[in-house]
Write a structure and sequence with these properties.
elongated, Rossmann fold, alpha/beta, 5-stranded mixed β-sheet
């Protein structure tokens, strides 16, 4: 018997839930004399809409394929997956190997006849809820931007820093690196060539590392804000 837990954010409240889930299942499995403990698999700060980045989930599935797990306990369908297709595909694969998943909240055991029908029904609700939340978040971000409230990721944005008033201001040293990238590219240098030059001179990226990627330089070059600022600076120089 194994258990799977997941929380979707790293907030303090969610991390408390994450710890509580692990303790709950460790105790629940340990107290049942008919069960042999096969592990607690727990992902934190990971969305349920995709399984690709869920390391612990994939490790659990690998253990199932090796025959080390017979039954999985999990809180609910939304904890297991919010993508109906992925959920059904995983459940069917496990059932084909004689492995069941028990969803406590919905009281569904995938090894029963009615299991798949109920999973399809509840998974659809969970996925719709996830998409609704996502759309609401995106809408909120767009409205905030329209009002002039643009979020800045200072640790990842080269050329700016947070000013004393809390507003973004140009970091002169980093801004020169941005100008250099544009100058070299306009002079005909390739992105790979610019990357090599920056690394040879140990110029740090926005995160402070001295190893540049092609994608990082490309993102700077296609950033409309950087390009517009550079155009204004050229106009002033003329």
């Amino acid at each position: 018997m194994a258990a799977y837990c997941r929380v979707s954010t790293d907030s303090e409240e969610q991390l408390t839930s994450y710890t509580s889930q692990k303790e709950y299942y460790t105790q629940k499995i340990g107290e049942n004399p008919d069960w042999e403990f096969a592990g607690i698999f727990a992902d934190r700060g990971i969305t349920g809409t995709s399984m690709k980045k869920r390391v612990e989930f994939n490790r659990m599935i690998a253990a199932c394929k090796r025959g080390r797990i017979d039954l999985i306990l999990t809180k609910s369908l939304s904890r297991f997956a919010r993508n109906t297709v992925d959920c059904l595909a995983t459940v069917r694969m496990l059932r084909g190997r004689g492995i069941g998943v028990h969803f406590e909240k919905e009281n569904i055991n995938t090894l029963t006849e009615a299991g798949e029908f109920m999973i399809t029904l509840f998974s659809g609700f969970a996925q719709a809820e996830s998409e609704s939340i996502r759309n609401n978040v995106i809408c909120g971000i767009l409205k905030s931007r329209e009002a002039g409230n643009v979020p800045f990721q200072y640790t990842r944005l080269l050329g700016y820093r947070r000013g004393a008033d809390g507003e973004p201001e140009i970091d002169a040293e980093e801004a020169e690196v941005v100008r250099r990238i544009y100058r070299r590219y306009l002079d005909g240098a390739s992105i790979f060539g610019i990357q090599r030059e920056l690394e040879q001179e140990h110029v740090p990226t926005a995160t402070g590392v001295k190893q540049w990627s092609w994608q990082t330089i490309h993102n700077i070059l296609i950033n409309e804000g950087c390009a517009e600022r550079k155009h204004e600076e050229r106009a002033q120089d003329r």
